[in-house]
Amino acid sequence: MSVHTMRLALGILFLLLAAGIFLRDWFIPGLGVRFDPLRLNLGGFLALVFGCLNLAKWYVWRSYRNEIATPVRTPLQPDPSAVRNEAPNPELDFFAQDRDAAPDRDEPKHERRF
């Protein structure tokens, strides 16, 4: 088990423990009579802090790992970041003169007869 999975598991465990301590009278009535309620509340608070700390460390590492991951593209597909959605510059269209000077296709061609 990796450290990151252990942080997630410990974070969840500590949060469940804190919830159990804070809701002890709802689960087991009279439990606070046998034990010192101040110490139980302090233990619940520490469990809550440790649970949040472990989950925060796990989340920071997960976010960092996803950020540094190389985006994978399907092979032979164009790069979507290279596509520009702007119209071509007419000043740089060097074939426009050839299209303007070319005869229309609908006109009859002169045939050579020998």
Notes on the structure:
- The model has no long low-confidence stretch (mean pLDDT 83).
- The protein has a domain of 58 residues.
- It is rod-shaped and about 120 Å long.
- Helix content is 58%, strand content 0%.
- The longest helix is centred in the middle third of the chain and has 32 residues.
- It is built from five helices and no strands.
- The termini are far apart.
Topology:
Layout: H1 3-22, H2 24-27, H3 31-34, H4 37-68, H5 96-101
Helix pairs in contact: 1-4
Report the β-strand fraction as a percent range. Answer: under 5%
Biggest sheet: strands, sense, closure?
A: none
Through-space gap between termini: 89 Å
Task: Count up the helices.
Answer: 5
Give, in order, the helices and strands.
HHHHH
Mean pLDDT: 83
| Alpha-beta content class | mainly alpha
Overall number of strands: 0
Note the overall shape: rod-shaped
The stretches of 5 or more residues where confidence is low (pLDDT under 50) are: none
Please give the oligomerization state of what you see: single chain
- Helical fraction equals 55-70%
